[in-house]
Specification:
heterotrimer, A alpha/beta, B alpha+beta, C mainly alpha, A: alpha/beta, 8-stranded mixed sheet, 4-stranded antiparallel sheet, 12 strands, C: two-stranded antiparallel ribbon, 1% strand
């Protein structure tokens, strides 16, 4: 079993090790997730941040084994702790009984589009009750009572009446609350929230985030929060994973990421946030260039074409390996290698750091 | 996120952004037309359909050249000859020929029966003389692709058999291509004008006009049209000439056929209506007519072409059906439907099954048009999935 | 909900009115009025009394009055169930049509049911197992199905039936029962003969509908709610049937609105080829004989029954789609 890379004394609920999910098409292979590792602990929130298309959502879906062809998990482990045993989700048949009971049972999922994440022709009630009955025993009536309780818990007013309503009769915020209620139906120990607030207005965003936090303190579940919004990360996350083109370029505790960012990409991201304390009329930094198309993945470090500190002959040729900087803090950049030119020649298979 | 859900189209199709660093410069630029062509080419069935359509129109164009017998030459002694076939080889090698047929009347059933005279051969020739016709409407000639050496082809060849009046089925099928394929074009032309005009007005103006036109379309679509056509076609005066009937039938068919085109055009126009560049054109003072024809029609042209291609087979089927029932084109006009009329009862099917052969060109043409139209429709939207 | 119903009903009424107008046009189109034809037909055997009768007819139908009045007279008679006289049969149109209109509907509805029963599972299978051999096969057969008009298919079926079984596969009844009064035996006989013409009529619609179902389902399978349902831990078959198929059913149900008219249309020609005792052959005879009252009546009846069929499909749609049930705004094409 891979070593635990965290300052916490406990074992993680979920550890992802070198996860690789590729999409195969006649035009080429898209390495949507290419060697992602992180640990998730009880009562803690892990934020995954990155630009659109960096593989955040694919990571989330890979964990739940919701990747459909032409996509496939080609390597890595997804270790879920169930009681005393560890289950490698990557090895399970994706539609088998065990995987299905984990989906929605151990791991709940909240999507970014509250608009379309519910079926338009079924009532909110039928969809939530279905989720409850899939993961618990009990009569229809009990499931119904539980659904009402869940809706109340996520702050939906008049929960009893809402059950009979259709998704399109609810506002965006309410729908997202109902979505969270549904994700909680199986008492999951892990909640994956994929851009849960992106489609909502700012006030509603704050309410939903607040709700997630209070639910966490009540149930003790671990949360993976996927977002491109560093503000949300700062507010919610305990640990942060920064992704770029399917790679984890840096991960560490939230304080380290925000106050001592190491990777040039992390720094660039932080620099592009508007700040209140910045002098008036100062120019807002942007990251030059755009995320390259997955088929045109640069050689070497995927970030080097946009990186201000790229080293010619190194960064554009060799992919950097993850380097531990402090307990729980790890960066994937040649700038921090002991001997930038020579050492990086090591094979990935050796697993110098964490494979 | 789209990474997980859709199969990726080729990079050229998805990402025609200006070239930047890191090798994006390798992505070539492509015009809309080019993209459509690329996408169309990927549909192998559509390309094949296009080829068949082209071939059929060539047949229609050179029908008289390809036919070997005068389609209206009847001969009571050659009534209902079964398909005769051609022998390609004899003892001397490649030497296409047929055997003469000896017709007798069965004295019990009073049917004509034919026997091959194996002893004699009638050699075939290529590019030889037959009946006179005008090629492409200008050149008077009597050269045909095939014929028989010495003698009239009408009297000795019946590759696909003959009908009751002893007319050659193959030649008639070839010549019928002309009628059957052009009636579709004329019909589609009328439908196109009606569909684009009404669909365009409906989609551009919206409001009450749209409502009225939409209701009319909805009503037309919910009427069983064939009985209606039949009624209208039956009411055509018997005294009309072939040409008059031809155009009357075209109009009847197209009166119903325009609704689908109008629907497509309206849908596209509605979608375009609120695009910024249309609003900008409007603010710049363009007249509605200019906006429709200069700004909008070019953008929907590909869709219109696709819808037109898909409307053609319907026209062909309609004509065939009407003529088949004896309510469309009437002899001496020759169309696939007119030919099939002879196979419309059980006795004909039982005794002279080769008379159903015109089914083959009908189905081929319709299938080819459908494949072509389908490919065009998919290609019309090069950015779609 | 009521608004929606009212809207559809109003449209149905409008359609029926349009059909009645067209039927009237058909009756009026041939040169001279029908009594002229009638008299001409009586010509050879004309007696004083029949000529008088003709004049009486002309007065009764107001043929000496303006067109609009004629239409009003005709339509009010039709409303009372008087469809006029068939010149060819010299009997009231209602008697001539008799059972045939119902048999037309039986055949058409059976064809519609066939269409659904075939298109639904094939569409689901093709969408879920996309790009497999079977999917390609179905798609190709679908193309051919759209391309072969039903009457040509009927011709081929007749031919094949004759060659392989050596029997006439047409008709809706066995010869010995064709003119028998209705009873259990005749009904069973009908059920036995119904599948073939129904299948012939259903092919074109099935091909269209299967493609619609496949495309819809493919669309729906991409929707986030499918992923949501999967993330709940629902098993794949249950999920498929409960969510995307259910949603994709909506356009499916509304397809009856344009398929049913097509099937009724097709039944007219197919009936002729397969010699079914529906109104199809009757209509053709009437048209050939310029028996316009009979023809007009048949066109009108077919139109009305089609509109009724479409209205029923709207009710089904409403029951299927809560969005229509609640909002009352029609989203039907």
């Amino acid at each position: 079993m891979p070593q635990v890379l965290s300052g916490q004394g406990t074992t993680p609920v979920l550890s992802v090790r070198d996860l690789r999910t590729y999409f195969f098409s006649p035009e080429g292979t898209t390495r949507a997730v290419d060697g992602v590792s992180f640990d998730l602990f009880e009562r803690r929130t892990l934020g995954i941040v990155g630009e659109t298309g960096c593989g955040k959502s694919v990571t989330a879906r890979s964990i739940l084994r919701l990747i459909e062809p032409p996509g496939r998990i080609v390597g890595g482990e997804i270790l879920l702790r169930r009681g005393d045993t560890l289950v490698d989700l990557a090895q399970l048949p994706p539609n088998g009984r065990l995987m299905r009971s984990i989906r929605g049972g151990d791991i709940g999922l909240v999507f970014q589009e509250p608009m379309t994440s519910f079926s338009p022709v079924h009532t909110i009630g039928s969809q939530i009750i279905e989720a409850i009955r899939l993961h618990g025993r009990g009569s229809r009536r009990e499931a119904r009572d539980r659904a009402i309780e869940l809706l109340r818990m996520v702050g939906v007013s008049r929960p009893r009446e809402r059950l009979a309503e259709y998704p399109w009769q609810l506002s965006g915020g309410l729908r997202q609350r109902a979505m969270i209620a549904m994700a909680l139906a199986g008492d999951p120990r892990v909640l994956i929230a994929d851009e849960p607030t992106t489609a909502l207005d700012v006030t509603t965003q704050a309410q939903i985030l607040h709700l997630l936090r209070s639910l966490q303190s009540r149930t003790g579940m671990a949360i993976i929060l996927i977002t491109h919004d560093l503000g949300v990360i700062a507010e919610m996350a305990d640990d942060v994973v920064v992704m770029y083109l399917g790679n984890v370029v840096e991960r560490g505790p939230v304080d380290a990421i925000f106050h001592a960012p190491k990777h040039p990409y992390t720094r660039a991201l932080l620099d592009s946030i508007p700040r209140l304390e910045a002098p008036a009329r100062s120019k807002l930094e942007t990251i030059r260039g755009g995320v390259p198309h997955p088929f045109n993945r640069p050689t070497g470090c995927p970030f080097h074409p946009r990186c201000a500190r790229a080293i010619d002959g190194l960064c554009d040729e060799r992919e950097p390996e993850p380097l531990p900087l402090a307990p729980g803090h790890e960066v994937r950049c040649h700038l921090y290698g002991a001997d930038p030119i020579g050492r990086a020649r090591d094979d990935r298979a050796e697993g110098v750091i964490v494979g | 996120m789209s990474e997980g859900t859709s199969q990726a189209p080729p990079p050229e199709a998805r990402d025609p952004r200006p070239a930047g660093r890191d090798g994006e410069g390798r992505i070539p630029f492509a015009s809309q037309r080019r993209l459509i062509w690329w996408r169309f080419r990927r549909h192998r069935l559509a390309v094949a359909g296009g080829a068949v359509v082209l071939l059929l129109y060539l047949v229609a164009l050179f029908a008289d050249f390809l036919a070997y017998a005068d389609p209206s030459a009847s001969d009571g002694h050659r009534s209902l000859i079964p398909p005769q076939g051609i022998d390609l080889f004899d003892e001397d090698g490649f030497h296409p020929h047929v055997h003469p047929l000896i017709g007798t009347r069965d004295l019990r059933t009073f049917e004509r029966v034919y026997r091959r005279d194996e002893g004699r051969e009638i050699p075939l020739c290529f590019l030889c003389r037959g009946y006179e016709y005008t090629l492409l409407g200008i050149i008077r000639t009597d050269i045909h692709l095939i014929g028989v050496e010495r003698g009239r082809a009408e009297a000795s060849l019946a590759i696909l058999g003959t009908d009751v009046q002893g007319r050659d089925l193959f030649s008639r099928m070839v010549v019928a291509t002309r009628t059957s394929l052009t009636i579709g074009i004329v019909g589609v032309g009328i439908s196109l004008v009606l569909g684009v005009a009404l669909g365009g007005i409906s989609g551009y103006h919206g409001g009450v006009v749209d409502l009225v036109i939409q209701r009319v379309i909805e009503i037309l679509r919910s009427i069983p049209v064939i009985p209606l056509w039949l009624g209208l076609a039956a009411a055509l005066p018997r005294s009309w000439s072939v040409i008059q009937v031809y155009f009357a039938i075209t109009i009847i068919i197209s009166l119903i056929g325009w609704t689908e085109l109008a629907r497509v055009v309206r849908g596209r126009f509605l979608a375009l209506r609120h695009e910024d560049f249309i609003v900008a054109a409007e603010l710049a003072g363009c007249s509605p007519r200019r906006i429709i024809f200069v700004h909008m029609v070019p953008l929907v042209a590909s869709h219109i072409i696709a819808a037109t291609t898909l409307a053609l087979p319907l026209m062909i089927i309609s004509e065939t059906a009407l003529s088949f029932l004896g309510l469309g084109l009437r002899p001496p006009a020759v169309s696939w439907g007119v030919l099939l009329q002879q196979a419309s009862n059980i006795e004909a099917i039982a005794l002279t099954p080769w008379l159903i052969l015109p089914v083959i060109p009908v189905v081929t043409a319709v299938l080819a048009f459908n494949f072509l139209g389908d490919g065009l429709r998919d290609a019309a939207d090069p950015y779609g999935i | 909900m009521l608004t929606y119903l009212a809207r559809r009903a109003a449209l149905g009424m409008l359609t029926i009115w349009a059909i009645s107008l067209l039927s009237f046009v058909i009756i009026q189109l041939p040169p001279g009025d029908f009594v002229t034809t009638y008299i001409a037909q009586l010509g050879q055997t004309a007696t004083g009394s029949s000529l008088e009768e003709a004049q009486a007819l002309r007065r009764a139908y107001g043929l000496d009055r303006p067109l609009l009045v004629q239409y009003a007279t005709w339509i009010s008679r039709v409303a009372r169930g008087d469809l006029g006289m068939s010149l060819n049969w010299k009997r009231p149109v209602v008697d001539v049509i008799g059972d045939r209109i119902w048999l037309t509907m039986v055949v058409s509805i059976a064809a519609m049911v066939f269409t659904w029963l075939l298109a639904l599972p094939i569409g689901i299978y093709s969408a879920v197992r996309r790009y497999t051999l079977a999917d390609h096969l179905f798609t190709f057969v679908g193309f051919v199905g759209v391309a072969v008009p039903s009457f040509l298919l009927a011709l081929l079926v007749m031919y094949v039936g004759l060659v392989i079984f050596g029997a006439d596969v047409g008709g809706l009844f066995s010869p010995e029962l064709a003119h028998a009064p209705w009873g259990w035996a005749k009904f069973k006989d009908l059920l036995l003969h119904l599948p073939l013409p129904a299948a012939v009529l259903a092919l074109g619609g099935t091909a269209q509908l299967f493609r619609i179902m496949r495309a819809n389902l493919l669309d729906e399978l991409q929707k986030p709610y499918v992923l949501t349902a999967r993330a709940k831990g629902l098993s794949e078959p249950r999920l498929l049937l409960k969510y995307p198929v259910r949603v994709a059913l909506n356009p499916f149900a509304s397809s009856i609105g344009f398929l049913f008219p097509q099937i009724v249309s097709g039944s007219v020609i197919v009936s002729m080829v397969l010699s079914l005792p529906t109104v199809g052959p009757l209509l053709l005879d009437a048209l050939h004989a310029q028996d316009m009252f009979l023809a007009g009546a048949i066109v009108l009846l077919l139109g009305i029954l089609t509109v009724l069929g479409t209205l029923i499909s709207d009710l089904v749609l409403m029951w299927l789609d809560p969005r229509i049930r609640h909002a009352g705004r029609g989203s039907v094409r």
